[in-house]
Amino acid sequence: MASGVDFDGSEAKGEMWDLEQKLDQPMDEEAVRLKNMYREKKFSTLLLLRLAFQSLGVVYGDLGTSPLYVFYNTFPDGVDDTEDIIGALSLIIYSLTLIPLLKYVFIVCKATDNGQGGTFALYSLLCRHAKVRTIPNQHKTDEELTTYSRNTVHELSFAAKTKAWLEANAFRKTALLMLVLVGTCMVIGDGILTPAISVLSASGGISLDHPKMSNDVVVIVAVIILVGLFSMQHYGTDRVGWLFAPVVLLWFLFIGGIGIYNIYNYDSSVLKAFSPLYIYRYFRNGKKKGWTSLGGIMLSITGTEALFADLGHFPVSAVQLAFTIVVFPCLLLAYSGQAAYLMQNHDHVVDAFYRSIPASIYWPVFIIATLAAIVASQATISATFSIIKQAHALGCFPRVKVLHTSKTFLGQIYIPDMNWILMVLCIAVTAGFQDKSQIGNAYGTAVVVVMLVTTLLMTLIMLLVWHCHWLLVVLFTLLSLVVECTYFSAVLFKINQGGWVPLVIAAAFLLIMYVWHYGTLKRYEFEMHSKVSLAWILGLGPSLGLVRVPGIGLVYTELASGVPHIFSHFITNLPAIHSVVVFVCVKYLPVYTVPEDERFLVKRIGPKNFHMFRCIARYGYKDLHKKDDDFENKLFANLFTFVRLEAMMDRCSDSDEYSLCGGTMQSRENGETSALNLDFTVSSADSIVPAMYGNATHASSGRESGQTEGYELQFMRSCRDAGVVHILGNTVVIARRESRFYKKIAIDYIYTFLRKICRENSVIFNVPHESLLNVGQVFFV
Fold first, then answer.
1. N or C: which terminus of the chain has fewer CB atoms within 10 Å of its end residue's CB?
2. Residue 11: pLDDT above 60?
3. Quick one: pLDDT at residue 145?
4. Residue 166 in contact with residue 176, Cβ under 8 Å?
5. Can you list the alpha helix ranges (DSSP code H) found in 60-81?
6. Read out DSSP for 274-310?
7. Long-range contacts at 236-239 (CB < 8 A, ≥ 24 apart)
8. Whole-angstrom Cα distance, residue 625 to residue 632?
9. What does the alpha-carbon distance between residue 420 and residue 622 come to, in Å, rounded to a whole number?
10. Cα separation of 65 and 375, whole Å?
11. Residue 176, H or E segment
C-alpha cells in the first residue's frame, strides 16, 4: 500500500519481489540512481506511517478523549427534542471539520518554527521577521545562525508596512507580548483542566453498574489517579512512551467500532446531521438555550491547541496523515454512534458514552478509556512544562528548576515546582466542582481563548512570514474569528458556572509573568545605560589600577556588548582582580535551538596585555544547560582556540594550512572539540575597533606573534590551574520614590518576592559554591 502496490495479492508480491531482485543485480549509473530513489521512497513512506502511528499517543490523546463528556455538557438539563440531537451532532461534525481539520491540520501546522509548534514558536517567528522583542539583546551575528531562518520583504509591500507599523511603537510590541502571554497562561490552564475533566469522566464509568454509588467515590478514585499521575512525572515518559500510541490507537478503534455498532442498531437517521440545514433548525428551535449549548459543543475540539503545541515531536505530514486516516473518521463515528443511541435513550445523556457501549466489551473499554485519559493528561502536562521553559527562555517566567527525564530526547523535561502546583490546582478543581459540566465550562473558556490568540498571531505570520496576499489573510482571519467568536460568546454565558476558573488561573499567571518580564526589562535597560566605556578601561592601564592575581574571573552579565556596571562596581571596591577576566553572557534567542558548533561567540576586550575577553553563549528556547562541567569546559576550549587562532591569523594570513569557513573554526583543545564564531575585533560599549597588541614589540614580526601565542596560551592555562572564580551580580531592584503606586507594588513587592523564591543564577549555571563571588548592587528603576 505504501508504494502503490496491493500487498494482499500474491501476484503483486511476486512482481515486487522480481523488481527488488532486478534492483539488486549489477547495473549502470542510471539504474543505480533509480534503485536509490525506489528504496528511499519506500523507506520514507514506511517511516512516515510509523511516525503517524507514534503521533497518535503524543498529539491526539486530548482530542480523542472528548467523546467522554461532550454530549453531557451540551445537554446538562436533558434532551427536549429528538431533532436537537441531530442538530448538536451536525454542529460537532462541522466544528471538527472547520477547526481541527481545515484550520489547524492543514494551515496552522505549517506555521512552525523549524518544526516547533505552539504560541511561543509563532512569537519567535515574528521576532525574527520584525523587531518586536521588548528586550533588544540581539546582534547581527545572531542572524547568521543556521536555525535563524527568515524571509525578506519588499519595501513597498503590505508586509513591509505592517512590519514598520509594529516596530514603530513600543506599546504595540508590549501588546503583542501580552497577547502571547495570555495564550500561554490559558495553555497552563489547560494543563490543569485537561487531567481534571478527562480522568473524572473516565472514572465515572465505575458507577454505571452501581447506581447507588455516591459521586464522592468517583471523585476520590479520580483524585487518587491524579495524585499517581503527577507523582510519576519525574520518571518522564521515555520508558512508557512506547505504550501511548498503541493505547490511543486501540481507543480510536474502539470508539469508531462502537459508533458503527450504535448507528446500525439504534438509528441510522442521525447521518442526516451531515447536512448543515440541521444547524439552522437547532438554533431556530433552541434560541438562547441552543446558543449557550455551544459551550458544550466546543469541547469536541478541545485538544486542538495541544495538537499544535506538541508538533515538534513529529513532522507535519505524519500529523496530517494520522488525523485524516484515523482520528477524524473515528471521532465522527463515535459522536454519530452516541447520537444514534441517544435518539432512543434521551434519559441517558449524563453517561451517554458508557451507556452506549455493548455490555460484552464494557470493562475492556472502561480500562482503555481510563488509560487514554491518563495519556491525554500526560501529553497536556508535558506541553505545559515545555511552554513554561520557553517562557523562561524569553524572560517571561521566574527561574525554576528544569530536569531532563530522557537521555535520548532532550525535549522531555520535568519542572518539579510547577508539577506540584499543577497537581494541587487540578485536585482542587476536581474535588471542588465534582461535576463534569462545570469543569467543562471552565475547560471551554480556556480553549477558545487560546484559539483566538492563535488566530491573531497567524494573521501576522501570514503577512510577515508567508507574505500572503492581504485578501487571503482577511479571508482566513474573518472565517476563523466568526467561528471562534461565536463559541466565545456562548462561553461567556457560563462564566458563573465554572467558566471563571481559567480566567482566575490565567490572571494569576499573567500577573507573575508580566511583572517578571517587566523587572527583567528594567534591569536590562539599567545595565545598558550604566555600562562602562572602553576609554575608562584603557585609562586604567593593563593592571586595571589593581593587583592582578593568578586565576580566571568569569563575570556573568546580561549584556552582549560593552563592560557591565558590575565590573566597575567590583574593581572600585576591591583592590585586586584576576589575571584573566572573561565576561560571560548567556542569552536566549528567538530560535528553537542553537547548534553546538555555533553556540559560542568569543571576542577580545581591550589590548592583548589586558587579558580581557567576552564569551557569548547562545541558546534557543528548547535548549537546556547540562548539569555538569560541560559548559565551563567548552567555554575554555573555545576561549583557548580563539587565542591560538587569533595569532595564527596574524602569522599565517596567506597560508593554506588554516582556513576559516564563514567565520567558524573547528579545533581540539585538551581533547575537547570546540567550534566558535571568530570575531577578531575589540568590543566596546560604543564602538568596534581593530584588535591591537599591548605594545609595539608584540606585533613586530610573525615569529614574535608565535611567541605571543605560546606565551598567552600557557599563561591562560596556568591561570585556569590557579583557579576559576564565578562573579555574579546580586542585584536588588527598587522602584524610585517618585514612581506610581502600582509600579512600587509590582517592583518592591511582587518582583522582589518572585526573586526571593526563584532559583539563583548560581544554581542555574551550576556554579560550585566554593568558587562563587556575589557582588551586591542596587538598581533604581
1. N
2. no
3. 81
4. yes
5. 61-64, 70-74
6. GSTHHHHHHHHHHHHHHHHTHHHHGGGGTTHHHHHHG
7. 236/405, 236/406, 236/412, 236/414, 237/378, 237/382, 237/405, 237/406, 237/412, 238/405, 238/406, 238/407, 238/408, 238/409, 238/412
8. 11
9. 22
10. 10
11. helix 170-203
pLDDT at position 696 is: 31
Which helix H or strand E contains 651, and what residues bound it?
helix 630-651
> Under DSSP, is residue 602 helix (H, G, I), strand (E, B) or coil?
strand
Question: Helix/strand/coil (H, E, C) string of 698-760?
Answer: HHCCHHHHHHHHHHHHHHHHHHHHHCEEEEEEEEEEECCCCCCHHHHHHHHHHHHHHHHHCCC
Residue 441 has pLDDT above 60, yes or no: yes
Distance CA 597, CA 677 (A): 9
- Give the residue from 463, 390, 385, 425 showing the smallest Cα distance to 130: 463
| Cell reading at 767 | 556554579
Q: How many CB atoms lie within 10 A of CB 693?
A: 16
Q: Which residues contact 654 (CB under 8 A, 6 or more apart)?
A: none
In angstroms, what is the C-alpha Rg of the chain? Answer: 30
Residue type, 568: S
* Residue 668 bridge partners (DSSP): 673
Query: Is residue 468 a contact partner of residue 153, using CB atoms and an 8 Å limit?
Result: no
Contact 55, 246 (CB under 8 A): no
Q: How confident is the model at residue 477 (pLDDT cuts 50, 70, 90)?
A: very high
* Helix, strand, or coil (residue 558): coil
Q: 36-48: per-residue pLDDT in tens?
A: 444 445 447 888 8
Three-class DSSP category at 371: helix
Closest CA to 667 of 736, 722, 616, 597: 597
pLDDT at residue 662, rounded to an integer: 35
Q: What is the pLDDT of residue 762?
A: 59
Across 374-378, average pLDDT = 87
Q: What is the DSSP string of 482-506?
A: HHHHHHHHHHHTTGGGTTHHHHHHH
